[in-house]
Design brief:
Blueprint (H helix, E strand, L loop, with lengths): L2 E7 L5 H11 L3 E6 L8 E6 L2 E6 L3 E4 L2 H11 L6 H6 L4 E4 L6 H8 L3 E6 L2 H13 L7 E5 L2 H4 L9 E5 L14 H9 L9 H7 L4 E9 L11 E4 L3 E6 L1
Helix pairs in contact: 2-4
The chain binds S-adenosylmethionine.
Length: about 240
């Protein structure tokens, strides 16, 4: 079934080209161009001078800038001691089954891993794909595909030992504080994530070349499967590692 989404162009002269390109990225998305933008009622994609964002009148807008993110990593001097790098281990290749805003995929790429990523939400996917294509990142360093990473990983032709990374959205029953506006937009956008069954972990680990399944959780979030083999614990997050 196709997902329909409105798209607004601040300048309409190259709307046709952009619409064609975005439709080629993901055939499951029907883009409906609107000519008026009312910031009190609009929910959809917003295209302004080559920049594609998602806008929801209730929370604001979400845009991705991967080149800026990489500059931040350089400034922060990110290195192999990062928890995420320790969590995925020694393998050079990582499958990021939950691309989202791309921050974790980009962190892994920056730290030298080759990343095969999946995103199941069509809108989040084309946001990521468009912004990756506009950035200076080469496709062989992060290869983002549309679809459910928990099953589509089987279509990858892996040739070396690989780690599998899974970061589903965590929605606590009670919240001390609301997340930042950008994150609220994102949470609303991806409200229907694919279902996860804990048996998937053993299924993925049965693959000849996948020897590590890493789940990112909030520090106090419940386990998604019984006790992991290792845990890497940070200040606010935790990585549960199954082998
Ligand atoms: C918590 S976010 C991931 C955040 C991500 N690690 C980042 O750095 O931004 C979860 C994302 O994964 C996607 N997702 C969840 N389950 C998925 C699955 N089985 N396959 C592909 N994408 C999935 C959701 O649509 C959402 O965009």
């Amino acid at each position: 079934m196709k997902t329909s989404i409105y798209i607004y162009f601040t300048q309409s002269h190259h709307a046709c080209d952009v619409l064609r390109q975005l439709s080629n990225f993901c055939s499951e998305l029907e883009l409906i161009q609107v000519l008026d933008f009312d910031k009190k009622s609009f929910i959809g994609l917003f295209f302004d001078h080559d920049k594609l964002s998602y806008y929801d009148y209730r929370f604001g807008s979400l845009s991705l800038d991967f080149d800026a993110l990489l500059r931040d990593f350089r400034r922060q001097n990110l290195g192999k001691k990062e928890l995420i790098s320790r969590a995925v281990g020694q393998n050079k290749v990582v499958i990021d089954s939950t691309f989202g805003t791309g921050k974790d995929s980009l962190t892994l790429m920056y730290l030298g891993f080759q990343v095969n990523a999946f995103e199941a939400n069509p809108v989040a996917y084309i946001l990521g794909k468009w912004n990756l294509e506009k950035s200076k990142i080469q496709e062989d360093r992060i290869n983002l595909k549309f679809g459910n990473g928990l099953s589509h990983y089987k279509n990858l032709s892996l040739v070396q030992k690989t780690s599998f990374y899974f970061d589903p959205m965590f929605r606590p029953e009670k919240r001390k504080a609301l997340p930042k506006k950008g994150m609220q937009v994102f949470e609303e956008l991806i409200a229907n994530e694919p279902k996860f069954e804990s048996a998937i972990i053993s299924e993925v680990l049965a693959h000849d070349l996948i020897d590590r399944f890493v789940i990112k959780r909030p520090i106090k979030g419940p386990l998604l499967k019984e006790k992991p083999h290792h845990e890497i614990i940070g200040k606010t997050i935790r990585f549960d590692i199954y082998m």
